[in-house]
Amino acid sequence: MHCSRCFDKYHYGCLNISTTKFDIFSSEFKAKWICPSCRCKEPKRDNINTPIRPTSTLSNAQVYENVTLRTKSKSSSNCSCISADSIREIIRDELRSALNSQLLEIKNQISVFDQSLSFLSNEYDTIKKDMETQKKYLADLHKENEMLRTSTRDISLRLRQIDQQSRACNIEIQCVPEHRSENIVKLVQQLGKTINCPIKDEDVYYSSR
Questions:
Q1: For the purposes of burial, counting CB atoms within 10 Å of the CB of 112, is it exposed (0-12), middle (13-18) or buried (19 or more)?
Q2: CA–CA separation, 22 vs 200, rounded Å?
Q3: Residue range 147-178, pLDDT digits in tens
Q4: CB 83 within 8 A of CB 8
Q5: Distance (Å, rounded) from C-alpha 116 to C-alpha 113?
Q6: What b/e readout covers 10-34, taking b as 16+ CB neighbours within 10 angstroms?
Q7: Are the C-beta atoms of 9 and 1 separated by less than 8 Å?
Q8: Which runs of consecutive H residues, i.e. helices, occur in the chain?
Q9: Are 9 and 18 in contact (CB under 8 A)?
Q10: CA–CA gap between residue 89 and residue 91 (Å, rounded)
Q11: Whole-structure pTM value
């Protein structure tokens, strides 16, 4: 329905007009139709000839009970009618409220994600620093290990040389029968007498088979 004065559009369902009744309306009636908002603004006339509305007719509150009404300022009329602009404004408010709620939730999620990312970044920096410290420690251990290997090699070589030098004055005697409870020092002294080479006790530093 198009108002012939304010040119606003209304759905006949919001005006509590059935489809059958709407189809009965003539084109002339629709062209001259005035919306409830504009009709409320008309000056009051003498209503002597106005027929009494049947009691079964729905009141304005019942007619528009399925329409959300906006609170008007005190300067506006007391008519409970609602225009298309008001409906559009209500829809805008509802959409704005829904979008604000969704945006707030997204903002909170982004904030939590940012905190998690900062925590992971700090943990990564800590782990990286620890790895660098461990890497340096391993390098020092490797260097120390190489030094110990070199020292061990030198000590082994020296011990071998000392052992060879200590054996320079040794005498090895072979093919001597072994007896139970024998005294090797006495045996060596007897061998010395046999070859006319006397050997004293202090001449023998160590003897073994």
A1: exposed
A2: 149
A3: 999 999 999 999 998 888 877 777 788 888 88
A4: yes
A5: 5
A6: beeeebebeeeeeeeeeeeeeeebe
A7: yes
A8: 19-24, 27-31, 36-41, 60-63, 84-166, 184-194
A9: no
A10: 5
A11: 0.33
